[in-house]
Amino acid sequence: VEVDSLELKKLIVEGQNKSYDSLSTNIDTYSFDYLEKKLREIVGIEKINTDILKTLELVDRNKNLTNAGNLFADKNNCHLIDMVRFGDNQNTILSRSQFKDISILAAFDKCVEKYKEYYQLENIKGPYREKVELVPEEAFREAIANALVHRDWMHNSFIQISMEKDSITITSPGSLPRFLSKEEYLNGQISIMRNPIIGNIFFRLSIIESFGTGIRRIKNAYKDSRKNPSFKIFDNSIEVKLPVISS
């Protein structure tokens, strides 16, 4: 059966019982200042050294970066997230932010900052300020984290985020991992980690709660709303739509 070059690479990696994020690169010059800052704040690790990088599987035995290490490094060659904020329709672009060549953690934090700027506001009631979330923050954070952890990084393309008046749509490259059905994905029954090294670090930093709970947490964030998030699975992408619940 004929396959294209990308599918052949995937089959070779699977045949070696490895994940793409564990494969070594030839990059031997790097820094992890942003990761070190996060580990200091959340885990209590003051300084990153080679032993820690090897334990986290960000470098190999020759001290070259793995693909996961390349994504977490302060500078890389990766296309991460493309965020577009639309006006009344998709013919009107109000702003656009592309996050690339930076740490995957920095891209995640910048996404959350943009979300707060556009989808959170404060109502003043007497002497008090009340925060209003037009889209539940928990759902947005979980959707972005899921996209970064589970997307197919063999495609060097952006995760696309469309920010509109009535919803936020997150589209990540690559379809479901092999052997994971649509029903299992939507129900959160099992978790097949496409990128276990990335997932492990996001878990250690408390960005994700535990493996396989992302979809349930997104749905749970809308449990008190009449609107619900939607999920679409295509041959080469996965789309998550988060509706606005407050005007």
| SS content category | alpha+beta
Give the helices and strands as they follow along the chain: HHHHEEHEEHEEHHHEE
- Approximately what portion of the residues adopt beta-strand conformation? 15-25%
Count the DSSP helices: 9
Share of helix, binned: 25-40%
Number of strands: 8
Q: Radius of gyration from the CA trace?
A: 19 Å
Strand order of the largest sheet: 2-1-5-6-8-7
- Report the biggest beta sheet as strand number plus sense, adding barrel if it closes: 6 strands, mixed
Distance separating the two termini = 52 Å
> What is the mean predicted local confidence, pLDDT?
88
Oligomer: single chain
What does this structure look like?
The protein contains 9 helices and 8 strands. It is α+β, with helices and mostly antiparallel strands and about 250 residues long. The strands form 2 sheets. The chain has a 6-stranded mixed beta sheet with strand order 2-1-5-6-8-7, covered by helices on one side. Strand 3 and strand 4 (about 130-135) form a beta hairpin. Helix 6 (about 135-150) runs antiparallel to helix 8. The longest helix is centred in the middle third of the chain and has 16 residues, at about 105-120. The mean pLDDT is about 90.
